[in-house]
Write a structure and sequence with these properties.
This protein is α/β, with parallel strands linked by helices and 392 residues long. Helix content is 40%, strand content 12%. It has helices spanning 30-43, 50-63, 74-84, 99-107, 126-136, 153-163, 214-224, 245-255, 258-276, 304-307, 311-320, 348-354, 368-383, 385-391, and strands spanning 67-71, 90-94, 111-115, 140-144, 167-170, 178-179, 182-183, 190-194, 207-211, 282-283, 298-302, 357-360. The chain has a 7-stranded mixed beta sheet with strand order 1-9-8-5-4-2-3, sandwiched between helices. A 3-stranded antiparallel beta sheet has the order 10-11-12. Helix 2 runs parallel beside helix 8 (245-255), helix 3 crosses helix 7 and helix 9 runs parallel beside helix 13 (368-383). Bound molecules: pyridoxal-5'-phosphate.
Length: 392
Amino acid sequence: MAVTGKPAVLGGDAVFAEGLPLTRLKVPERDELARRLDRILTSGQLTDGSTVRELEEAVAARLEVPYVVAVSNCTSGLMLALQALGARGSVAMPGFTFSATAHAAHWAGATPVFAEMDPDTLTLDPDDAAALLAESSASVLMATHVYGTPCRVEDLAKVADDAGVPLVYDAAHALGSRRAGTPIGGFGAAEVFSLSPTKVVVAGEGGLIATRDEGLAQACRLGRGYGNPGDYDCVFPGLNARMSELHAALALASLKGLSERVATRSHLVGVFADAVRGVPGLRLPALAEGDVSTWKDLTLIVEPDAFGLDVPTLAAALKAEGIDSRRYFYPPVHRQKAYAHLPARELPVTDDVSARVLTLPLWSHMDEGTVGLVADAVLRVHEFAGAVAAVG
Ligand SMILES: *Cc1c(COP(=O)(O)O)cnc(C)c1O
């Protein structure tokens, strides 16, 4: 099926008359999951049980790290890791990240301060992170593997070491990503993953703290259970951030086939990239040679002058084609109302690029034909850009 004629926004037929959502859940193998859930319910042990331990061990083996602590979500995992690392004063992080990165620092008792992105990869710019650490005396550096693209972990390790601060990764998107062959999970003091419903591995809600530091793992284990070592004489104010056995069962089922899903997503992104190659003013985040991204999101970076349309107009035209999209991450965190009271630090690259990102539908069991049609829809909107801009 070829996409011909006028774009839907100009009165043509919509490419996806039924609508194409941003993501679709890959339902894990049901029989095994049902058996596992049945065993959990029969046991009566719905939390603090063997399923969470099994998940932690399976993920630790996969990530090649000694310790994994399962938690109720990535946000609480980041809070616990920051608390354990003694975050105070300010915590440095990219402005281009999900709000939860900054919220975690706030709830751990610190103030977020923001650094620039690298415009090619959209991950934290190590040079600006170093400048920010020098001017802010932040107690922790955080970085996000945006969309699953590995950060420049070697450079960031040096920046953090030089400043004498621990480095924590928001790895929410990156379960299955690799940096030059090494799984994301073992870098920095801790890396924290999300298993929320839009991620590539899901638990319903859930998070995983991965670390090589035994003391940090122990502090996070204590912290996820109120800070109670077992005798109800809490040693510090913790959270209830436990993962339930039921969520761990879903996570174990969803972990199966992860490598294949990541390979499929890379392939589909390649199909899309080939289809839009040559269209002026469109690019995807750069991935370093030898790195693996989960491609948690398929995000376009649009150059409005060259492409002929700005992001809101492109998004509206795609909506008319039935194609859902999101501006991940716009507004960037330093521009959000929650942080408007903080002293401003100019982030011109982040402000510019974040206004030009648009995330398109992608899921692990999407077929090539669907990706091709999404690319065709983008091409068609570009072809009619002048007329689309006039109605938009
Ligand atoms: C989803 C997400 C989070 C939050 O994860 P939860 O498990 O929902 O707490 C944090 N950071 C990034 C980059 C995310 O995309």
